[in-house]
Every structure is written in structure tokens, then in C-alpha cells.
Amino acid sequence: TQASTRVAYGNELLDLIEAGTSADAALRQAVSRDDRASHRQVGVISLDGTRGQHTGDSTSVWAGHRTGQNFVTQGNLLVGPHVLEAVVESFQSSENSSRHLSDRLIEALWAGQQAGGDARKGRLQSAAVVVADSREGISRRHDGITVNINVCENPTPVAELRRIWKIGRAHV
């Protein structure tokens, strides 16, 4: 969730999906109960492959989202739609690789940044990547967390996220 972030979407969507609702139906339900949905962006994808996205019509220019077989991505305050296209291209190009999801996500964010990224150049912004998977042999750590990097209030948050990630990768 972003663009007038509403963190409650997280638990609501997870609870609905756990109860058997498809990701797209869960998102439609959650958005229909939100009186500020027109100001928000949210995406969800479940393990069964169902997915849903919402970009409200009162979000900032440029805002949009893309959906593919194994991903959802959204952005707002971007320099244009080509930023999301770069993210999608990077992520899809690593689809059948042996790379961890966290690596693929961070490289996709970096591709979007290289394509122009956020339109607020130099203003303090944030970026985060959290990947958890408790399945045996999937996570890099015993607690199921593969990566948890959160960069707040930084003029180049994606570059800082990638720098931290590279330091961590050197120790894996």
C-alpha cells in the first residue's frame, strides 16, 4: 500500500485470503470499505497466483500499476509509465533464475530508478523491501526472513536500499 498509505490493508487482505477469498476479491472487498480508496494504491498477490491491484483516481501524476503472472507492481509520483515497464522487464527477465526473490525485487526497483524513478528528485523519500517465506530451504534465515531493509527519509532511497543489500550479499 502506498499513496496515502493504509497499513490496515495488510492484515485485512491476509485474513481474507487465509479464509479462502481470492486476492482480487479480497482487494475489492477491502477497497469498497475504504472511504479514501480514491487516494490510495494497493497491490496483492497470493500463493495460489491470484492477484489484485488498485490505483485510485485521486492519486498523483504519474500513478499506475502493472500485473503479470507472478507479480504486481505499482508506482505513483513517477516520471512516467516507462518506470514501471523497466521494473516489469527486469523482474520478468529473472523469472526462471535461481536468484532469491529479494534479489530480484531489489534489482527491479533499481531498474525503475535507472529509468527515471520518482519525480521528486532529491526530496526525502523512503524505500523498503521485506521478503518472508517460512518454507524449508527457501529463506536465508532461520526465522523465515530473507531480507528486511527499510530506508527512511533519504534523498536517494532506492540507491541506499541497493547499497545496504549489496553489503549484506557480501556476507551471504
Structural overview:
Strands 1-2 form a two-stranded antiparallel ribbon. By secondary structure, it is an alpha+beta fold. Helices cover 36% and strands 22% of the residues. Strand 3 and strand 4 form a beta hairpin.
Please sum up the structure shown.
The protein is an alpha+beta fold. The protein has helices at residues 8-18, 23-32, 81-93, 101-114, 157-170, and strands at 41-45, 51-55, 64-68, 71-75, 125-132, 145-154.
Number of strands: 6
Parts with pLDDT < 50 across at least 5 consecutive residues: none
Widest sheet: strand ordering: 1-2
Radius of gyration: 16 Å
The mean pLDDT is 91
SSE string, helix = H, strand = E? Answer: HHEEEEHHEEH
How far is the first residue's CA from the last residue's CA? 30 Å
Overall helicity: 25-40%
**DSSP summary: helix tally:** 5
> What structural class should be given to the helix and strand makeup?
alpha+beta
Specify the overall morphology.
globular
Which sheet architecture does the biggest sheet show?
A: 2 strands, antiparallel
In terms of DSSP E residues, the strand content is 15-25%
